[in-house]
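DM from R.C. (forwarded with permission)

"hey, sorry to bug you on a friday — could you get me a structure for this? deadline for the figure draft is monday and I only need the backbone to look sensible"
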Amino acid sequence: ADEQESSVFQPVKLRNPEFVEAMKELKADLMVVVAFRMLPQMIWEIPSIGTFNLHAALLPDYRGAAPINWVVMNGERQTGMTTFFIDKQIDTGNILLQESMEIPVDWTAGNLHDAMMVKGADLVMRTIKGLEAGELTPKQQDDSLYQHHAPKILKEDCRIKWDHASETIYNFGRGLSPFPTAWTMLEDQNVKIFFTKLSELEEDGEPGQLLLRDNALFVKVGDGWLEITELQLAGRKRMQTKVWLQGIREIPTHFS
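My reply, with the result:
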């Protein structure tokens, strides 16, 4: 920070009068917000050009706190990023630039996050340069394109329902991996499920029932079976399921 002569402010409250005054004294033309909570109007209206945000989806679709998780959970094959001017409502301001990107079918939310981290930095820089040169025309969002909400995800939202369809659970798991992570119960302990594979097994069974076949662990779901490939038991490290199976004497019978 010293080399760039940058200042770092860490206010407990964003409405702190001393912090607001310090921001005004910077006489900034533009402010950029990435991965932050809602700013009070007294802050975002300070710069002469405005304050823009980088959102990890193609607005107005997937407005909300967790767009990266939700697009993967919903099985989307395409998403993108948006820079937009902040206004009084959440994720509703005028759009500056957008960039689309594909989501490979085996990507987790973590894979998508890491790819967006690089592409998002580039989009922010292009937005800054475009505004500086006066080449960008902010465009109002078309609310009719707001099809999906992407709210904050709580732990209770992450429990797997084994009676759902295999593809639904597959997408649910990778959309919550590596964080906040899908989970289930094994007897009385919590088990995090990081990744599964679609399976062509055709055995009968009840949802949640476990089956060991060729040193692989399968779980019965609403329309077939899924292979559990990565998991983490309470108090243990994340591991490949094959490794876990080598260390247990008796194969459990059910997830619940």
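R.C.: lifesaver. The two ends are 50 Å apart (CA to CA).
me: no worries. The chain has a mean pLDDT of 95.
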